[in-house]
Design goal:
The protein has helices at residues 2-19, 25-45, 50-63, 66-69, 71-81, 102-108, 124-133, 172-182, 218-227, 275-282; strands spanning 92-96, 116-121, 140-144, 157-163, 183-193, 231-239, 253-260. With 283 residues, the chain is an alpha/beta fold. It has two domains: 2-67, no CATH class; 70-282, Rossmann fold (3-Layer(aba) Sandwich). It has a seven-stranded mixed beta sheet, with helices on both faces. The longest helix is centred in the first third of the chain and has 21 residues, at 25-45. It starts with a helix and ends with a helix.
Length: 283
Amino acid sequence: MIRLSRIRKGLRLLKCLALRKPLDPELQRDVHVLRLRLRVWMSVLTRKPLDVRFHHEFNLWAAKGVGEDMDNPHRRIIELALPKMGLAAGDRILDLACGAGLASRLLASSPAGCGRVVAMDISDEMLRHARSRSSRLPNVNFVCGTAEHIPFPDNFFAKALSVEAFYYFERQDRVLADLYRVLAPGGRLFVLICLYKDHADSLATVDAVDVPVQVRSIAEYKALLEDNGWIDVNAEEFVRAPQPGRKPDVHDRALLLSAQKPVLSAQGMVSGERREKASTLCG
């Protein structure tokens, strides 16, 4: 049945091309998806850097509506995480790897309020979808870039959030270093993920995606944060109990990691337990 549908679409496409007729919206979308898929294949065959491959892969996901499809499972865990962030009026918040922008919209419209949300993603297609869905929120800006090179000055953000994306970052230590740079002293980082070693059911999803992922345990994540100069590192799991009639989902269990960039005292000393390492990074 699926093959027959594809054959029919192919014949319609050939007819439009032969008669030089404009493509209908459905065919336009199919051609767009095919072009994006070819870019993904070429980036793999030519061994492009992983950031390039991610750019093309997530553009393909955006065109297929994957970002919007994640709104429902992600909303619950984001809404559980937001009260933990201590949002305040005037906060500048980075939503790193924002996808279709759900977390950015929830942050921008939070009753606690915030000054501005910067929604950043490596995929310009994802950002296009996020921008169109956030048009009524004047306090959201959109930026295309990579997590290792956040295009903002030092000490710019009060808080940073990353939802269901951190395991895609190839060099997580470099990402943490740039997040450390753009957060103000005392600023807090929040990483929300459903794929980690302690969540055994989530590991089956590793083979379901066509891009490499970095999977760590809770203890390994905490050590990674501390080794990169962060203090007050905490880990909290959100676990939804099974409910009659509801199919279990990998998003029923999520991990929220939080950490703080040390504060400099008036004498220029770094507060917190890891002073020497943090002062090196600040220097």
